[in-house]
What does this fold into?
Amino acid sequence: MDSLRNSLRRLDPRSPPGTDEGTLRDGEDGRFARLRGSDFVESIPFWLPATLLVLLFVYGAIGWNVVISLTGWSGLGQPEYGTFTLEMYRQMPADQDFRASLRNTIALLIAFTGVSLVIGLGLALLVDRKIRFENAFRTIYLLPMALSFVVTAIFWSWMYASNGMINATLTAVGLDAIAFDWLGDPRFKLAAVIFALVWQFSGYCMIVYLAGLRSIPDDHYEAARIDGASTLKLYWRVIVPQLRSSTIGAIVVLMVFALKAFDFIYVMFGDNPGRSADILAVTMYREAFSASQWAYGAAIAVVLFALALTIIGPYAYTQYKRGAL
Amino acid sequence: MATETRDESGLSRTVSELSLGRVALYATLLGLVGLYLSPLYSGLTTAFKTQGAFTETSPLQPPIGGFTIDPWLTAGSELAFSMVNSFAMVIPAAVLSAVLGSLTAYGLTKVDWRGQALLLALFLAAVFIPYQAVLVPLRQFWSMVGLAQLHERGELVELTITHIAYGIPICTILFRSYYQTLDDELIEAARLDGASLARIYRKIVLPLSLPMFAVTLIYQFTQVWNDFLFALALLSNRSNYVVTLELNALQGSMATDYGVQMAGAFIAAFPTILVYVLFGEQFAKGQTL
It folds into this structure.
């Protein structure tokens, strides 16, 4: 437990450096002296109700979803829990819609996350340059994050419309040659979605990176300066590596948002956006809720969940291992 | 003219009053402001234009020569009932997840026992789960429980309970990181004086938690208000529609009337924009887990 406490202390940016010797006992340093294990029974009413809700609604539901995917349940009536089949999973490789949506999901994950991080880091570096009205700039860049996908999808449908803002701007600056029906062409649908999502979430990346930038101790900059590092080198060698944990946290959150981009696509294109913009989340909803292919929808949800787990699992595990929990 | 200055982050930077670099920096920042606000700008100009002005002018132009508030009145009357439903859902959902999150984090942070870290890892993972993975069972579960058959508002109650359950993990994690920084000496002392855990919570922890309650309530308010997927999967009765769902329906029925769509989008977003503008600081804190 001492090592856990010390690692917690190291994670706490406010603790003074150099005090993490492993000799502290309970009570010596009130900060980490907690109530003992003997109070366990008394603590049960505090955490048990919520824990049961989470186990039932989250983990129970995930398990139940797996079971439903194995029943082959379709159409009317109730699923038969007696017989199990892998038929739903066998169907997937031959299903063109499924394959397209898996491809699009992965493309969306990579492009959306990568571009948002780069733009977010750029915004954070700009805003961190001791500017006037920093709060106002920050507020505006983060504002889209406060809006729902439904609202942003409606705004962006109008932005992309053939008589909308984007084409009007292109025409105004004499580029009417590339004005275009952006949502009408399959080649641009997914890119249009990604562009709008980056608009919505790059401000979030900025906030994460700003917090990261401001937790870097002064002496790191000073040491680099004394060593005669150029500004570019300072950023690349000193700042960017220290933003690693910010980046990892942001990647996890962004990827989860990307897997959820359902709302945005559903409001923009309905439950059948076509193979060019279909993602797993939409295919899952269409199969289960529109076509009543409940087991197949549940099976697609399992794939989606597995994809999320490959992202979340290592993150939650390292947080757990390093004692951040 | 360059002078070395330091700000609170301690980063030494070269700041001069009117250097070319500064001008370029502000030009970039302002250009980005334009880019980030352009969807809202085009929505706002469109929502105030008469049909005539809409067809004759570009979305870049303000609604001069054809100003109207009709789209706002139409969208407002269409969305009114769903705004009421959204408030009826979001207030209990946000408050109860925050309270349960606070109690859970207290129980799992301030008492040492093996296994609590594992539970917290489960809570953390639950924050990131894609809701598609639980949608079919949720629909099944609520049709079995059958609140919707018992009462015409039952669906809305089901949706609210769902939001409470799915809000708990993030609230617990947020409170947890806050409680880790709380000084334990007070709690230890109170314990030695024979105070119960409940009394310690009420007298010491709860009053100290108020800033974190602000953060979690704002976070949950925004999340629940903005939710579309759970509502879409669980609500079938139009009179129970929350505002995101009704806005989507409005978009479908007013496919060509961009003015009404844009006004509707602003009306639906107004509560979260207001919360964001009033409590920007706490909003940002909730985002950086």
